[in-house]
Amino acid sequence: MAPIALIAPIALVLALALTAVGARAAPIEAALGIYATMQLSPAADATIALLDLDGRALGPRLDAPQFCDLAARGAAVIADATYQVAGSARESQVFCGRLYTRLQRKQPVAAGALGRSRFERVDWRYGLGAERYKLVPWRTLAAPAGLASIGQALAVPALQGLVLPDGTIHDGEVFVADRLEPGAEPRVELFIGLEAQRSAAERALGAIGAIVGVQRLSAAPAAAARLRALHSR
Predict the structure, then answer these.
(1) Which of 122, 137, 167 is the last residue of a domain?
(2) Residues 6+ apart with CB under 8 A from 180
(3) Residue 215 phi/psi, 5° resolution?
(4) Whether this model's pTM surpasses 0.85
(5) Model confidence over 10-20: pLDDT tens digits?
(6) DSSP state of 214
């Protein structure tokens, strides 16, 4: 969805194992976090226009912190439309380094690039992930390139039987449709919908606790095809 700091980390971390659906690869132990599409309410006096890659104004205007937050997070719902990062231009609209001092210190080029972000309006409320896959609440997983491939269906047995905020029961199957920057330890993040659902998601996942040595899921090519279709436009 966005090349820079797409995922906003949270304190909730779980140990889990991932198993490729329809494959016999050994389970991968990783920490699990969650992420969401943020919702922005621009101030009436906001002056920074969201521009597309051709420099055309898309409509919304944000203040500097909102612009930089959107550039770092990758996507946001503004009013009734969803906008996400489409790339970058040579000219900067905002200097985001002062708002992201930690990023500026560790990755000065990346921090400077935030202010050069350009955007697009997308027709899927939650935004699009890697390879233009739709982000689907409780089904989309973001993973580092070395851990799982985009378009790969996985089983997270720790999620199996989990009661979701809408009352449905999770079957433990997810689809890698978003990319996560690699870290020191294996980590994946589950997309849970809009930012407004974060507290409910944390409560639901809090019942899992630390899970290790989980059971692998048997081969299920039908599940992989179903998950791919769910994420395809």
Answers:
(1) 122
(2) 6, 7, 142, 143, 144, 187, 188, 189
(3) -80, 140
(4) no
(5) 434 555 666 66
(6) P
